[in-house]
Amino acid sequence: MEKALIIAGGDNKDILIESLYNSDESYKVLIAVDRGLEILDKLQIKPDYILGDFDSVSEKIINKYINRNDISIIKHAVEKDASDTELALDLCAKLGIKEVTIAGATGNRADHELANIRLTYYYKIKGMNVTLIDQNNKIYCADSSFSILNSGQYVSFFPIGEAAVLLTLENFKYEIDRVQLNYNKSPTFAVGNNIIADSGNIIFDSGYLIVIESID
């Protein structure tokens, strides 16, 4: 399955971007979103696309790429109905990409961070798997049962969407059996669990969960 890596303008770390870019993952497309271009430029990594309203990246850096034939530049208006990150995901959808990793989608702006977490659900229902990565967290949306390898992380679950989730957790410190999660349940009920075997099983048949794997 073809994959894309998006470098957004949030809390970027050089070591994280280098690790993602040089990982065993095979990314067909690399997209720099606005200030994300500054990190790639610093690391001398060439994006395939540069996208955004360019309100947070220096004109000097943009000008280094503007006449290159091997890079597509897509400029959007500052005033628009979607964020630059959402527009980058729209581009991935148009390119037929189903697996997307985003770095720089978290950081100082809580409004942008919450919007980006919601984007993982918004595109999941469109058939795209979107994962947000930062130094301490891996955030994604799940719509069916799956397993997580134990790497010593905390794992938290949050229902999203209209349907309730009947959730079972196996091989976790706090196991549950078909507990209904919805917006009427305590929002901290499924926060900060730990896997106690080689892997933990997350079992549910319908609905959607935001999953956050975190390390301190």
What is shown here, in short?
This protein has 216 residues and is α/β, with parallel strands linked by helices. The chain has helices at residues 14-21, 36-43, 59-65, 84-94, 110-124; strands at residues 3-7, 27-33, 49-52, 72-75, 99-103, 129-133, 137-142, 146-149, 154-160, 165-170, 176-181, 193-194, 199-203, 208-214. It folds into 2 domains: 3-135, Thiamin pyrophosphokinase, catalytic domain (Rossmann fold); 146-214, no CATH class.
Output the CATH class name of the largest domain. Answer: Alpha Beta
Structurally, the number of domains stands at: 2
Which structural class best describes the helix and strand composition? alpha/beta
Number of strands: 14
Query: What is the assigned CATH homologous superfamily of the largest domain?
Result: Thiamin pyrophosphokinase, catalytic domain
Mean pLDDT: 93
Radius of gyration: 18 Å
